[in-house]
Write a structure and sequence with these properties.
Elements: H1 4-33, H2 40-48, H3 54-57, H4 59-71, H5 73-82, H6 84-104, H7 111-138, E1 142-143, E2 146-147, H8 157-181, H9 185-215, H10 217-224, H11 228-232, H12 234-252, H13 256-277, E3 280-282, E4 286-287, H14 295-322
Antiparallel strand pairs: 1-2, 3-4
Length: about 325
Protein backbone atom coordinates (compact mmCIF):
# COMPACT_ATOMS: atom_id res chain seq x y z
CA UNK A 1 0.00 0.00 0.00
CA UNK A 2 1.22 3.49 -0.85
CA UNK A 3 1.93 4.86 2.61
CA UNK A 4 1.13 8.45 1.65
CA UNK A 5 -2.46 7.90 0.47
CA UNK A 6 -3.93 7.32 3.97
CA UNK A 7 -1.99 10.35 5.23
CA UNK A 8 -3.45 12.52 2.44
CA UNK A 9 -6.96 11.30 3.20
CA UNK A 10 -6.47 11.78 6.93
CA UNK A 11 -5.40 15.37 6.22
CA UNK A 12 -8.43 15.94 3.96
CA UNK A 13 -10.88 14.55 6.51
CA UNK A 14 -9.15 16.47 9.29
CA UNK A 15 -9.46 19.67 7.26
CA UNK A 16 -13.14 18.99 6.57
CA UNK A 17 -13.80 18.43 10.29
CA UNK A 18 -11.93 21.64 11.20
CA UNK A 19 -13.89 23.62 8.60
CA UNK A 20 -17.16 22.19 9.89
CA UNK A 21 -16.34 22.95 13.52
CA UNK A 22 -15.46 26.57 12.71
CA UNK A 23 -18.16 27.35 10.14
CA UNK A 24 -21.10 25.41 11.54
CA UNK A 25 -19.83 26.10 15.05
CA UNK A 26 -20.71 29.78 14.98
CA UNK A 27 -24.26 29.22 13.72
CA UNK A 28 -24.79 26.45 16.28
CA UNK A 29 -23.46 28.95 18.82
CA UNK A 30 -26.02 31.52 17.71
CA UNK A 31 -28.72 28.89 18.28
CA UNK A 32 -27.35 28.11 21.74
CA UNK A 33 -27.54 31.82 22.63
CA UNK A 34 -31.02 32.17 21.07
CA UNK A 35 -32.94 31.93 24.38
CA UNK A 36 -31.01 34.93 25.75
CA UNK A 37 -32.69 37.30 23.26
CA UNK A 38 -35.18 39.60 24.96
CA UNK A 39 -37.57 40.18 22.07
CA UNK A 40 -38.68 38.53 18.86
CA UNK A 41 -37.00 41.22 16.77
CA UNK A 42 -33.67 40.36 18.43
CA UNK A 43 -34.17 36.68 17.62
CA UNK A 44 -34.89 37.66 14.02
CA UNK A 45 -31.66 39.65 13.94
CA UNK A 46 -29.64 36.75 15.38
CA UNK A 47 -31.09 34.23 12.94
CA UNK A 48 -30.62 36.57 9.98
CA UNK A 49 -26.93 36.87 10.80
CA UNK A 50 -26.46 33.19 9.86
CA UNK A 51 -29.34 32.72 7.39
CA UNK A 52 -27.25 32.85 4.18
CA UNK A 53 -24.54 30.52 5.50
CA UNK A 54 -25.86 27.78 7.78
CA UNK A 55 -26.84 25.11 5.23
CA UNK A 56 -23.63 25.55 3.22
CA UNK A 57 -21.59 25.22 6.41
CA UNK A 58 -22.91 21.70 6.95
CA UNK A 59 -21.38 20.57 3.63
CA UNK A 60 -18.18 19.91 5.53
CA UNK A 61 -19.90 17.41 7.83
CA UNK A 62 -20.98 15.40 4.78
CA UNK A 63 -17.47 15.56 3.32
CA UNK A 64 -15.91 14.43 6.61
CA UNK A 65 -18.33 11.53 7.18
CA UNK A 66 -18.36 10.46 3.54
CA UNK A 67 -14.57 10.65 3.35
CA UNK A 68 -14.25 8.44 6.43
CA UNK A 69 -16.53 5.81 4.88
CA UNK A 70 -14.72 5.81 1.53
CA UNK A 71 -11.11 6.17 2.62
CA UNK A 72 -11.16 4.32 5.97
CA UNK A 73 -14.04 1.82 5.85
CA UNK A 74 -12.75 -0.26 8.76
CA UNK A 75 -12.54 2.81 10.98
CA UNK A 76 -16.08 3.74 9.95
CA UNK A 77 -17.25 0.20 10.74
CA UNK A 78 -15.76 0.44 14.25
CA UNK A 79 -16.62 4.05 15.11
CA UNK A 80 -20.28 3.92 14.06
CA UNK A 81 -21.42 1.05 16.31
CA UNK A 82 -19.30 2.40 19.16
CA UNK A 83 -20.85 5.87 18.93
CA UNK A 84 -24.15 5.03 17.25
CA UNK A 85 -26.40 6.63 19.86
CA UNK A 86 -24.66 10.04 20.14
CA UNK A 87 -24.36 10.18 16.34
CA UNK A 88 -28.11 9.55 15.96
CA UNK A 89 -28.92 12.12 18.65
CA UNK A 90 -26.69 14.67 16.91
CA UNK A 91 -28.26 14.07 13.49
CA UNK A 92 -31.80 14.28 14.89
CA UNK A 93 -30.91 17.55 16.61
CA UNK A 94 -29.53 18.95 13.33
CA UNK A 95 -32.73 17.89 11.54
CA UNK A 96 -34.97 19.61 14.09
CA UNK A 97 -32.78 22.69 13.92
CA UNK A 98 -32.90 22.81 10.11
CA UNK A 99 -36.67 22.36 10.01
CA UNK A 100 -37.10 25.09 12.63
CA UNK A 101 -34.94 27.41 10.55
CA UNK A 102 -37.28 27.08 7.56
CA UNK A 103 -40.61 27.02 9.39
CA UNK A 104 -39.98 29.78 11.90
CA UNK A 105 -40.19 32.62 9.36
CA UNK A 106 -43.77 32.03 8.11
CA UNK A 107 -45.04 30.86 11.50
CA UNK A 108 -47.43 33.11 13.41
CA UNK A 109 -49.06 31.30 16.32
CA UNK A 110 -46.44 28.53 16.53
CA UNK A 111 -43.27 30.66 16.40
CA UNK A 112 -42.41 29.99 20.05
CA UNK A 113 -42.26 26.25 19.36
CA UNK A 114 -39.91 26.75 16.41
CA UNK A 115 -37.77 29.04 18.58
CA UNK A 116 -37.50 26.22 21.09
CA UNK A 117 -36.70 23.65 18.37
CA UNK A 118 -33.98 25.87 16.92
CA UNK A 119 -32.35 26.51 20.30
CA UNK A 120 -32.69 22.93 21.57
CA UNK A 121 -31.48 21.45 18.28
CA UNK A 122 -28.41 23.70 18.30
CA UNK A 123 -27.63 22.91 21.94
CA UNK A 124 -28.02 19.14 21.61
CA UNK A 125 -26.12 18.97 18.31
CA UNK A 126 -23.19 20.82 19.86
CA UNK A 127 -23.24 18.72 23.02
CA UNK A 128 -23.34 15.37 21.23
CA UNK A 129 -20.59 16.41 18.84
CA UNK A 130 -18.46 16.95 21.93
CA UNK A 131 -19.55 13.61 23.37
CA UNK A 132 -18.52 11.89 20.11
CA UNK A 133 -15.12 13.58 20.33
CA UNK A 134 -14.74 12.57 23.97
CA UNK A 135 -15.72 8.98 23.14
CA UNK A 136 -13.02 8.83 20.47
CA UNK A 137 -10.30 10.38 22.62
CA UNK A 138 -10.93 8.10 25.60
CA UNK A 139 -10.59 5.09 23.28
CA UNK A 140 -12.78 2.43 21.71
CA UNK A 141 -12.68 -1.24 22.67
CA UNK A 142 -11.50 -3.10 19.55
CA UNK A 143 -10.81 -6.83 19.25
CA UNK A 144 -9.83 -8.55 16.01
CA UNK A 145 -10.45 -5.33 14.12
CA UNK A 146 -14.07 -5.02 15.29
CA UNK A 147 -15.91 -3.06 17.96
CA UNK A 148 -16.12 -5.24 21.06
CA UNK A 149 -17.74 -2.89 23.58
CA UNK A 150 -21.26 -2.03 24.65
CA UNK A 151 -23.75 0.57 23.39
CA UNK A 152 -23.07 2.94 26.31
CA UNK A 153 -19.27 2.78 26.48
CA UNK A 154 -19.22 6.41 25.31
CA UNK A 155 -21.27 7.57 28.31
CA UNK A 156 -18.46 8.55 30.71
CA UNK A 157 -17.72 11.63 32.83
CA UNK A 158 -14.87 12.50 30.45
CA UNK A 159 -17.11 12.43 27.36
CA UNK A 160 -19.76 14.50 29.15
CA UNK A 161 -17.10 17.07 30.11
CA UNK A 162 -15.88 17.29 26.51
CA UNK A 163 -19.50 17.67 25.37
CA UNK A 164 -20.00 20.61 27.74
CA UNK A 165 -16.67 22.11 26.67
CA UNK A 166 -17.54 21.93 22.96
CA UNK A 167 -20.96 23.46 23.71
CA UNK A 168 -19.31 26.37 25.50
CA UNK A 169 -16.82 26.73 22.63
CA UNK A 170 -19.55 26.88 20.01
CA UNK A 171 -21.43 29.43 22.11
CA UNK A 172 -18.22 31.52 22.28
CA UNK A 173 -17.92 31.32 18.49
CA UNK A 174 -21.57 32.36 18.20
CA UNK A 175 -21.09 35.29 20.57
CA UNK A 176 -18.05 36.64 18.71
CA UNK A 177 -19.91 36.12 15.41
CA UNK A 178 -22.79 38.26 16.73
CA UNK A 179 -20.28 40.93 17.76
CA UNK A 180 -18.94 40.87 14.21
CA UNK A 181 -22.23 40.74 12.32
CA UNK A 182 -24.86 42.57 14.37
CA UNK A 183 -25.44 45.94 15.99
CA UNK A 184 -27.28 47.30 19.01
CA UNK A 185 -28.43 45.30 22.00
CA UNK A 186 -27.66 41.90 20.45
CA UNK A 187 -24.00 42.78 19.84
CA UNK A 188 -23.54 44.39 23.26
CA UNK A 189 -25.07 41.43 25.09
CA UNK A 190 -22.92 39.04 23.03
CA UNK A 191 -19.78 40.89 24.14
CA UNK A 192 -20.58 40.25 27.79
CA UNK A 193 -21.52 36.64 27.08
CA UNK A 194 -18.25 36.09 25.22
CA UNK A 195 -16.22 36.98 28.31
CA UNK A 196 -18.03 34.45 30.50
CA UNK A 197 -17.91 31.80 27.81
CA UNK A 198 -14.17 32.34 27.31
CA UNK A 199 -13.59 31.54 30.99
CA UNK A 200 -15.72 28.39 30.66
CA UNK A 201 -13.85 27.27 27.52
CA UNK A 202 -10.44 27.83 29.13
CA UNK A 203 -11.52 25.87 32.20
CA UNK A 204 -12.72 22.98 30.03
CA UNK A 205 -9.51 23.01 27.97
CA UNK A 206 -7.38 23.02 31.11
CA UNK A 207 -9.28 20.11 32.70
CA UNK A 208 -9.21 18.01 29.51
CA UNK A 209 -5.51 18.80 28.97
CA UNK A 210 -4.73 17.50 32.47
CA UNK A 211 -7.21 14.62 32.45
CA UNK A 212 -6.07 12.98 29.21
CA UNK A 213 -2.36 12.49 30.07
CA UNK A 214 -3.23 11.36 33.58
CA UNK A 215 -5.68 8.74 32.29
CA UNK A 216 -4.07 7.75 28.98
CA UNK A 217 -0.44 6.67 29.13
CA UNK A 218 0.24 7.02 25.41
CA UNK A 219 -0.89 10.66 25.46
CA UNK A 220 1.31 11.39 28.48
CA UNK A 221 4.26 9.82 26.66
CA UNK A 222 3.52 11.87 23.53
CA UNK A 223 3.53 15.21 25.35
CA UNK A 224 5.97 14.82 28.24
CA UNK A 225 8.71 12.52 26.97
CA UNK A 226 11.92 13.94 25.62
CA UNK A 227 12.56 15.36 23.09
CA UNK A 228 8.80 15.83 22.38
CA UNK A 229 8.28 18.22 25.28
CA UNK A 230 10.80 20.66 23.80
CA UNK A 231 8.89 20.82 20.51
CA UNK A 232 5.33 20.82 21.87
CA UNK A 233 5.43 23.36 24.72
CA UNK A 234 4.59 26.28 22.36
CA UNK A 235 1.07 24.86 21.83
CA UNK A 236 -0.26 25.55 25.38
CA UNK A 237 1.75 28.79 25.48
CA UNK A 238 0.14 30.02 22.24
CA UNK A 239 -3.27 29.04 23.61
CA UNK A 240 -2.71 31.22 26.68
CA UNK A 241 -1.49 34.13 24.53
CA UNK A 242 -4.50 33.92 22.19
CA UNK A 243 -6.88 33.77 25.18
CA UNK A 244 -5.25 36.87 26.68
CA UNK A 245 -5.62 38.87 23.47
CA UNK A 246 -9.20 37.66 23.01
CA UNK A 247 -10.10 38.99 26.45
CA UNK A 248 -8.21 42.23 25.72
CA UNK A 249 -9.98 42.76 22.38
CA UNK A 250 -13.38 42.11 23.94
CA UNK A 251 -12.68 44.79 26.55
CA UNK A 252 -11.50 47.21 23.87
CA UNK A 253 -14.71 46.86 21.89
CA UNK A 254 -13.05 45.32 18.85
CA UNK A 255 -15.23 43.40 16.38
CA UNK A 256 -13.19 41.31 13.94
CA UNK A 257 -10.22 40.23 16.15
CA UNK A 258 -12.33 38.42 18.82
CA UNK A 259 -13.89 36.15 16.18
CA UNK A 260 -10.51 35.38 14.62
CA UNK A 261 -8.99 34.74 18.04
CA UNK A 262 -11.80 32.31 18.89
CA UNK A 263 -11.11 30.43 15.65
CA UNK A 264 -7.42 30.33 16.63
CA UNK A 265 -8.36 28.84 20.02
CA UNK A 266 -10.32 26.08 18.29
CA UNK A 267 -7.49 25.35 15.87
CA UNK A 268 -4.96 25.14 18.71
CA UNK A 269 -7.21 22.74 20.63
CA UNK A 270 -7.66 20.72 17.44
CA UNK A 271 -3.88 20.66 16.93
CA UNK A 272 -3.49 19.34 20.46
CA UNK A 273 -5.90 16.49 19.71
CA UNK A 274 -4.01 15.62 16.52
CA UNK A 275 -0.68 15.61 18.37
CA UNK A 276 -2.14 13.40 21.09
CA UNK A 277 -3.68 10.79 18.79
CA UNK A 278 -2.06 10.65 15.34
CA UNK A 279 -1.59 8.18 13.64
CA UNK A 280 -4.47 6.46 15.48
CA UNK A 281 -7.79 6.93 13.72
CA UNK A 282 -9.53 4.66 16.23
CA UNK A 283 -7.61 5.17 19.47
CA UNK A 284 -5.83 3.33 20.90
CA UNK A 285 -5.44 0.45 18.44
CA UNK A 286 -6.17 1.20 14.77
CA UNK A 287 -4.01 3.56 12.72
CA UNK A 288 -4.75 5.31 9.43
CA UNK A 289 -2.78 2.64 7.59
CA UNK A 290 -4.53 -0.30 9.25
CA UNK A 291 -8.01 1.03 8.44
CA UNK A 292 -7.35 2.39 4.94
CA UNK A 293 -9.25 1.29 1.86
CA UNK A 294 -7.52 -0.21 -1.17
CA UNK A 295 -5.17 2.25 -2.91
CA UNK A 296 -7.26 2.12 -6.12
CA UNK A 297 -10.36 3.23 -4.19
CA UNK A 298 -8.50 6.03 -2.46
CA UNK A 299 -6.98 7.30 -5.72
CA UNK A 300 -10.35 7.18 -7.52
CA UNK A 301 -12.09 9.22 -4.83
CA UNK A 302 -9.10 11.55 -4.50
CA UNK A 303 -9.42 12.51 -8.18
CA UNK A 304 -13.08 13.44 -7.63
CA UNK A 305 -12.23 15.38 -4.48
CA UNK A 306 -9.53 17.38 -6.26
CA UNK A 307 -12.21 18.73 -8.62
CA UNK A 308 -14.98 19.04 -6.03
CA UNK A 309 -13.08 20.81 -3.25
CA UNK A 310 -12.27 24.02 -5.19
CA UNK A 311 -15.96 24.28 -6.17
CA UNK A 312 -17.03 24.02 -2.52
CA UNK A 313 -14.42 26.55 -1.41
CA UNK A 314 -15.34 28.92 -4.24
CA UNK A 315 -19.06 28.70 -3.44
CA UNK A 316 -18.45 29.37 0.25
CA UNK A 317 -16.14 32.32 -0.47
CA UNK A 318 -18.69 33.81 -2.89
CA UNK A 319 -21.59 33.49 -0.44
CA UNK A 320 -19.63 35.07 2.40
CA UNK A 321 -18.51 37.91 0.12
CA UNK A 322 -22.03 38.48 -1.21
CA UNK A 323 -23.80 38.58 2.15
CA UNK A 324 -21.09 40.21 4.25
CA UNK A 325 -21.86 43.21 6.42
CA UNK A 326 -23.79 44.15 9.52
CA UNK A 327 -27.32 42.84 10.10
CA UNK A 328 -29.49 45.48 11.73
CA UNK A 329 -32.89 45.08 13.36
CA UNK A 330 -35.58 44.61 10.75
CA UNK A 331 -33.18 43.54 8.02
CA UNK A 332 -32.98 39.99 6.70
CA UNK A 333 -32.68 37.59 3.79
CA UNK A 334 -35.95 35.70 4.14
Amino acid sequence: MEWYLPVIWAALIGTAVAMYVILDGFDLGVGILFPTARAERERDQMMNSVAPFWDGNETWLVLGGGGLLVAFPQAYAVIMPALYLPVIFMLLALIFRGVAFEFRWPARTSKKYWNFAFAAGSLLAAFFQGVILGGLVQGINVQNGQFAGGPFDWLTPFAILVGLGVTAGYALLGATWLILRTEGAVAERARGQAKMLLLAVLAAMAIVSLWTPLEVERIAARWFSTPNIYYLWPVPLLTAVVAYFLWKWLNEGREVPPFLATIALFLLGYLGLVISNFPYLVPPTLTVWQTAAAPASQIFMLIGTVFLLPIILGYIAFVYWLFWGKVREGEGYH
